[in-house]
Amino acid sequence: MNTNLKIFLFVLVVVSSYLGFANSIPQIESRPPATTELNVNMSPDELALAGKDIVTGDKGGCLVCHGIGSPGPRAPDLEGVGARAATREAGMTAEAYLQQALLKPCDFVVEGYDCLMGGLALDRRLNPAEQKSVIAFLQSLGGQITVKLTPQDLAAAGDGGASGGPEFTGATAEELIPQAGCQGCHTIEAIAATGTVGPNLSDVGARLSAEEIRQSIIDPNAVIAEKCPTGPCPNPSIMPPNFGDRFTAKQLEIVVSYLASLK
Predict the structure, then answer these.
(1) Alpha carbon distance 259, 75 (integer Å)
(2) For 54-101, what is each residue's pLDDT tens digit?
(3) Is domain 173-260 classified as CATH 3.30.420?
(4) Model's pTM, two decimal places?
């Protein structure tokens, strides 16, 4: 047997041994985390847990403004809201109050705060089943969970999510910017927006290119402005990071072009 053949056979035996050892090790299959599927048989605690995922995640984006256990940067502390909701409006249950506060937030504004939720269109972002899961979570914060899912809630969710169609319905920047709630944080003199939380955008087109404005909308943490009207800008940004999903591509370009024109 020549030397080359001996080397080949030796390598083959070594490789086979390693493969045999590797195959003997139990394999762990990596799976993406399962999402909570809403159903009418969920317990109150399970429904509230699903709502917590929405409130604390990007889909709800609630903690951009609110806090839980301390006041948020722009909106009240949600801790204990389940108990407070039952006493805020005479004749309204906690469940009814929270539902109206989600869908028509400017009807009930906590003293000392402005209504910044008016342009957030939760009825377009969340289907009826998701809305009830959020109410369950809010009720769990100091109160009793009374809300329940119905087959009708799930049917509405299966028919296309929330109310259907894009979240924002405007066709011009003057319509889209208020619908997105930008005036709650930014001053834009051309549309009489007077927010003082984020940078003044009245002449943003003189400072940033259209590409930079687009990036700031889609990824607000990419570049943080140094100065805001009341001092250093918050870092990380408190601007919702999901406008890239909430605007249609056409709507995004309408807003970007408009802001770029403000010089």
Answers:
(1) 26
(2) 998 877 878 877 899 998 877 889 999 999 999 999 999 999 999 998
(3) no
(4) 0.62
